[in-house]
Write a structure and sequence with these properties.
Elements (H helix, E strand, L loop, with lengths): L2 E4 L2 E4 L6 H28 L4 H9 L1 H29 L3 H26 L3
Antiparallel strand pairs: 1-2
Helix pairs in contact: 1-3, 3-4
Length: 121
């Protein structure tokens, strides 16, 4: 990807600009779909929507890890989408940076809370 220096600013050009984020969003979406299918399959097989059924499902270490992967994918997917919205529509740099920092703090707090919930079961 060629990067040209024009005065004090960089001009980023090339066909691959943003491709990594696009691919990451697709991969995280696939992880979330797989998790949803696993949950639906478990529900269709066991038919249990009680607290005991959910507690038994999430007491399994594999399911905890799959759920954690789901939440990490969800938060990273959300970060890319929200970051792009801030970059596209919020032009003042100070406001955009503030919103991005608040978004990151919120998503990290949600991830920490998800870990706490998962390992309580």
């Amino acid at each position: 990807m060629p990067i040209y220096q024009i005065g004090p600013k960089r001009l980023v050009v090339g066909a691959h600009y943003g491709l990594k984020e696009w691919i990451i969003q697709r991969v995280t979406a696939i992880v979330m779909v797989v998790f949803t299918i696993v949950l639906l399959a478990d529900y269709c097989i066991t038919g249990s929507a009680t607290y005991e059924g959910w507690a038994a499902l999430f007491s399994n270490q594999f399911m905890k890890l799959l759920t954690l992967l789901f939440f990490i994918s969800l938060f990273y997917h959300a970060w890319i989408g929200i970051r792009d919205i801030w970059m596209d529509y919020i032009k003042p740099v100070s406001i955009r940076l503030t919103l991005q920092v608040l978004t990151v703090l919120y998503l990290v707090a949600c991830a920490a809370y998800a870990v706490q919930i998962l390992w309580k079961v």
